[in-house]
């Protein structure tokens, strides 16, 4: 079955091609079901390949299939193929599984959209690109998938491009990601120069040819790329604006595809990071700072999707904290559980928006728990999971990150722990304002609204994801090696680079109790402050609602000066200096030609006279030379 792994990315690609050729003829809803079935088929193949690889000894779980050689240049040879190992299969499992649920949900959510087939065409292409990113056997294939998800994110964020805000958000995502991609490309060039290869296995076998400076440079340059794709400081503002796309797109980007790419890349190159500990410290501190700042911003947002967007930025910060500490299995553990509860929360928010006539302001909602019991119950599970309340999945995953952070630096743990309190608080605030209190949507004049849970295509994914968010932590319980399934599974890939946490049983219990206190404390604080009120200006300062003015500062100090410089280049340098020089030379020739033109009178007698005069001069010259 392992040799059938090429089918994993092939099915979404086939779905894309079918919809590209016949999507309009197939129409709604069949185009959506075809796309969904293709991703579901990919998930089934992934499960079968996973089972085949799991049946092998740990030392034999690496399979590289090189289909053909793409290019050669000197000592560099790059092929096209895939690498099947525990890390790539883990990524493929949750990418295809979560994406299949989001596709199913989208059939109901987008049923009235005029561009229904096009939407699913983009979704299938998005999944294909992400699968090539995680399955690629070399960094160039990974980079192609990396760019593919970037392009698809532009298509989907700007899907409703007739809205200026959506078109602007798509361009913003593209630009921010291109900044990060510059770091990725520089890392590729440096690796080519030092190792003469971009194949993962070859690079890792030649790391001795890189100095400590080279290793740090490669690590940090790759992290720049990851910071762009996975929205870390200072490149995260695009992710909040990405909410302009349809809600299933938000779920796909945040839970199953794009933003997890950076974390995957860092875990994939763990042998390099292991040899560059200083770079790891930088990554850890940027990660925990991002987690904290994004959590504070989430405390003051009123858009239901932007609260979730900043929570994604914060959770990604935790993942990079784990990566920087060398706890790669903890990063993947949190990535998996985050995929469950974040997809649940986004799809739940989509159900609310759908029922509220596209209203997204949580201050204009309220009292929906009785009218939308399924959405309310599943959203509640998502809140408890992301908050880290035991025994939900987020408790185990986030606790794993924090306990490893303590080993590296207690200061990292302190910031991460305070952020955990904020997470429970701002997600509780959101839940209470949406589902409790008075029905404020009646006050807005929306008397025609009758909020209710959506049909089965949208409800079934919520139920499945709620189950996963509740019990997903079972894949890596810290009660002995016989229960750390994920850690054992990933050991052949990241085990040699993994931070070894030697906490005693007592320490693990203390950390677990502390994590539970943080989560329950934050949730209790939210209940005390927001259950019976809507406005608390002191808790929603403009500084936080404007995201620390980071986006505005980038616009003022980078975007506007860059635009002014571009305008100066276009109007002064290009038009006046460059064009002026070229036009000046042309003008000189024009003036000279106009002067010479006077010699051409058009009269034959004038030309004859010039010829005779010329002959006389020549004869006189030769006579003088000859002495006659």
How many strand segments? 2
* Cα radius of gyration in angstroms: 31 Å
> Largest beta sheet: what is the strand line-up?
1-2
The biggest beta sheet is recorded as: 2 strands, antiparallel
Q: Quote the distance from N terminus to C terminus.
A: 106 Å
Global morphology: globular
How large is the count of helical segments? 24
Secondary structural class = mainly alpha
Uncertain ranges = none
Beta-strand share of residues: under 5%
* Overall pLDDT level: 92
String of helices and strands: HHEEHHHHHHHHHHHHHHHHHHHHHH
Helix content: over 70%
Gist of the model:
Helices cover 71% and strands 3% of the residues.
């Amino acid at each position: 079955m392992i040799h059938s792994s090429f089918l994993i990315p092939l099915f979404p690609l086939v779905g894309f091609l079918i919809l590209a050729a016949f999507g309009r003829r197939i129409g709604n809803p069949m185009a959506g079901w075809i796309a969904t079935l293709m991703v579901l088929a990919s998930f089934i193949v992934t499960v079968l390949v996973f089972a085949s690889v799991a049946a092998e000894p740990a030392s034999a779980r690496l399979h590289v299939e090189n289909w053909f050689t793409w290019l050669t240049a000197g000592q560099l040879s790059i092929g096209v193929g895939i690498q099947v190992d525990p890390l790539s299969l883990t990524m493929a499992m949750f990418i295809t599984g979560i994406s299949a649920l989001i596709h199913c949900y989208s059939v109901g959510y987008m049923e009235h959209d005029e561009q229904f087939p096009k939407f699913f065409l983009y979704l299938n292409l998005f999944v294909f690109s992400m699968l090539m990113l995680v399955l690629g056997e070399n960094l160039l294939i990974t980079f192609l998938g990396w760019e593919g998800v970037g392009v698809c994110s532009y298509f989907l964020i700007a899907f409703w491009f007739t809205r200026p805000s959506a078109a602007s958000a798509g361009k913003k995502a593209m630009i921010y990601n291109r900044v990060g991609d510059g770091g990725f490309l520089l890392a590729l060039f440096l690796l080519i120069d030092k190792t003469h290869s971009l194949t993962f296995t070859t690079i890792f076998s030649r790391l001795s040819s890189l100095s400590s400076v080279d290793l740090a440079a490669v690590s940090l340059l790759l992290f720049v790329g990851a910071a762009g794709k996975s929205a870390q400081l200072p490149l995260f503002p695009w992710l909040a604006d990405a909410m302009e796309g349809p809600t299933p797109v938000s779920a796909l980007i945040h839970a199953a595809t794009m933003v997890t790419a950076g974390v995957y890349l860092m875990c994939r190159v763990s042998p390099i990071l292991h040899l560059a500990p200083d770079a790891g410290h930088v990554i850890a501190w940027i990660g925990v700072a991002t987690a904290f700042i994004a959590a504070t911003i989430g405390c003051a947002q009123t858009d239901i999707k932007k609260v979730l967007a900043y929570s994604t930025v914060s959770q990604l910060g935790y993942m990079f904290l784990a990566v920087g500490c060398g706890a790669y299995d903890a990063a993947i553990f949190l990535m998996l559980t985050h995929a469950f509860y974040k997809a649940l929360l986004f799809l739940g928010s989509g159900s609310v928006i759908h029922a509220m006539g596209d209203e997204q302001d949580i201050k204009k909602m309220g009292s929906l728990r009785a009218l939308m019991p399924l959405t309310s119950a599943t959203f509640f599970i998502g809140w408890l999971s992301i908050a880290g309340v035991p025994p939900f999945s987020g408790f185990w995953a986030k606790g794993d990150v924090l306990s490893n952070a303590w080993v590296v630096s207690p200061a990292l743990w302190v910031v991460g722990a305070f952020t955990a309190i904020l997470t429970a608080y701002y997600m509780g605030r959101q839940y209470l304002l949406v589902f409790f209190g008075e029905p404020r949507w009646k006050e807005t004049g929306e008397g025609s609204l009758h909020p209710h849970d959506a049909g089965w295509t949208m409800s079934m994914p919520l139920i499945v994801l709620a189950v996963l968010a509740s019990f997903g932590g079972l894949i890596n319980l810290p009660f002995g090696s016989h229960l750390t399934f994920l850690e054992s599974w990933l050991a052949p890939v990241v085990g040699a680079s993994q931070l070894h946490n030697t906490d005693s049983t007592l320490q693990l219990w203390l950390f677990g109790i502390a994590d539970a206190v943080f989560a329950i404390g934050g949730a209790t604080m939210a209940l005390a402050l927001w259950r019976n009120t809507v406005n608390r200006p002191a808790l929603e300062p403009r500084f936080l609602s404007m995201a620390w003015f980071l986006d505005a500062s980038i616009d003022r100090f980078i975007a506007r000066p860059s635009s002014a410089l571009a305008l100066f280049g276009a109007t002064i340098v290009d038009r006046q200096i460059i064009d002026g020089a070229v036009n000046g030379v042309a003008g000189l020739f024009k003036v000279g030609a106009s002067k010479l033109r006077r010699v051409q009178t058009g009269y034959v007698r004038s030309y004859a006279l010039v010829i005779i005069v010329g002959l006389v001069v020549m004869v006189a010259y030769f006579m003088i030379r000859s002495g006659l």
